[in-house]
Here is the input.
Amino acid sequence: TQYVYRFGGGVSDGGSGDRNLLGGKGANLAEMASIGLPVPPGFTISTEMCTRYYEEGEQFPQSVRDEVAGGIAHIEGITGKTFGDAADPLLVSVRSGARVSMPGMMDTVLNLGLNDETVVGLAKAADDERFAWDSYRRFIQMYADVVLELDHGAFEEALEIAKEDNGFTLDTELSADHLKALVAEYKGLVEKEWGKPFPQDVHDQLWGAVGAVFGSWQSERAKVYRRLNDIPATWGTAVNVQAMVFGNMGDTSATGVAFTRDPSKGDRAYYGEFLINAQGEDVVAGIRTPQYLTKVAREEAGAKPASMEEAMPEVYGELAAVFDTLENHYRDMQDIEFTVERTKLWMLQTRSGKRTAKAALKIAVDMANEGLITHEEAILRVEPMALDQLLHPTLDPSAHRDVIAKGLPASPGAASGAAVFDADTAERWAAESKAVILIRTETSPEDIHGMHAAKGILTARGGMTSHAAVVARGMGRPCVSGAGGISISAKDKVMRVAGREVREGDLLTLDGTTGEVMAGLVATVQPELAGDFGTLMVWADEVRRLKVRANAETPQDCRTAREFGAEGVGLCRTEHMFFEGARITLVRQMILASDEKGRRAALDKLLPEQRSDFAEIFEVMAGLPVTVRLLDPPLHEFLPHEENEFAEVAEAAGIDIDTLKARAAELHEFNPMLGHRGCRLGVTYPEIYEMQARAIFEAAIDVAEKSGDAPIPEVMIPLVATKRELDLMKAVVDKAAKTVFEERGRTLKYLVGTMIELPRAALKAGEIAESGEFFSFGTNDLTQTTLGVSRDDAARFLGAYVEQGIYPKDPFVSIDVEGVGELIELAVERGRATRPDIKLGICGEHGGDPASIAFCEKVGLDYVSASPYRVPIARLAAAQAAL
Ligand code: ADP
Ligand code: MG
Ligand code: MG
Here is the structure.
């Protein structure tokens, strides 16, 4: 097997198609080199080597050592420099790079190849002593941190002291002599902490660094990131070894990061930051405040220091041309790293840029309109779940804002919550369903779990490309970064700003779109659904086959669902109506009645209530199908508990409280979810379903008479296991329909069908379809009954199950395709064999999950039904599934 792939100097052993093998970084470096962009030469050790490295007890086979020697020779041939040469040494960077970008997860070592001897050669060759010693001290610091895993605090402290002693504030003010002294101090620190002197052999340095990159694949923070992002551990990382280019060679040198379009709003404008006389991570780490790339951006921000466009117009022009080349080549917005070494531009990385949902939408729609991509590609470019960010409220522009600080609008959206000052607390409080805002001076990969748990993130330091900003945008969390003027003490759990204090637990609101930080809660408004969102939805609707309905049981939910484009109601749960106001007493009276007469007395009073509920929903949904599920939950759930609840029911029913309590005790169940619920209620008390059916038909006729536009009621019988159950219940429904139609002197189109939510029903679907005119897969219960896992109790162990790969994802979130999916496929096949035009849908939580929607498309369901806010997500996911 070949493990080493070269790039640069006219050679590219790989390309952008090799991302699995070379990692994203390596594949794109090779690709950029092959399209003639200026890339420092180098080579990539493949992800296959990472896997083998772990298989073989973290060792490198001789063949790989030989291949790496060949890679080094490749770089030497192009640069004319020799690795370890005392006169004109080749320096390299050792960079990690997995298949997908994992911001900040893996570590990079720069300036490798420096030692006491080569540093002197470098100074001479570059004719810049300060530069050489600056590079050496950076190298030791990084190597000690990443490879030797020594505490980096001591190194930073030494640097701070060196600056303080001289009255400096910036690293760049340190002279060559200061840096020499610092290097000596660093080497002392290494020897003290590590027990051995800093490695002087450049080959030892190289292999140490390569091993460390592979080693970091199994670091704790990489594992956390993988878990949060569903990245399998088997992918491994690649290692890139690349000739160094130097942005720290004085005022004609610089380093920067850029996006070819605005990653936050999506505007077609170059966007980025750079630093003169700096290296690599200085920009992201917030060591100095970076300068803007373009003049427009600088002016807009009212910033003073010259933009790159102004300070280095020629190189900037070259860079802009590279941006266009890259966008046309990759046909997507790119996130780029570059370095200028003495006015010469070098490209160090490109990848598809992370973006907010808003930017993703705008960029996809714009690029399609520019003719760069097709409508289909535009549809595939937007992650359906990311729309969630756009569908939720933003801050009400007219609400009062008690602004206490302002930072950079690092990730848009509004968030309110209680202030917390560390990631662990954020995670703990969020687990208790508290909304929290995570406040940090700056974030690092160790904070990822807290950022994930938080509703929003606030940092005192760091720019638009800081760790906090990049990660927050990726997660869709609102973020305000670099809020100057605030001082944070994580230890004392307090933030101070302009004479005010925010303590742990205090409420705070962030506006990630403006960068404002406000005390207290601020009112929100509904999102705007026109514009790019509307355009993409139109395109999606043109290609999707699956219909999208909503799970909704209130007129308000139905209106929201229609605004979001729902094509009907796929699940209207009638029991929610039973809990409202005074009705619960009637319901209790009904279920606690000792005979049919008692039940009917209560049901007669419930009838007008149900009818008016249905009428309101049918009005909103006029002309569309509405699936109404007859009463489903265990009677158990309706039982009174408190003394006063018993008293109320006793009075309403006119029976004494002790009889009532005795009856309630009789109804107690050990396992209510497998107990007296679903159609079992209808079988034992048909008058309940009779009343509900009557309410449905009366309401439907009322609406048809009033508006002329009748809804299409689909009466759904829950928890059916056998055809006979459905037959009995269908007879009740049909009889109610017949009676109402006779009374009102008109008829109405309606369907009677069933949920498929028990394995037996799925197996006997062929028979059940003889009576059922539609099936709706109730995948919550079907998952629960197929797996034998109670969804109300699963939280305690399901995490461990997913972690150990027993189920790839939470089966209550994303359908268990192998097991539950097979039952669905079988039911679809058998149902259709009996009744070719049977209507098939899904109404579990899975109806709003993109992966499950793809499955529904595959098995050929007619529609999915999701909660109202998930409807646009489902429309987009359905379109993607159809492509
Ligand atoms: P990350 O994945 O964390 O961005 P990178 O490997 O991209 O890590 O490197 C970190 C920083 O070092 C980046 O700013 C990158 O541009 C810079 N860098 C990496 N390799 C070189 C090199 N050969 N010459 C100059 N700068 C480099
Ligand atoms: Mg890094
Ligand atoms: Mg990078």
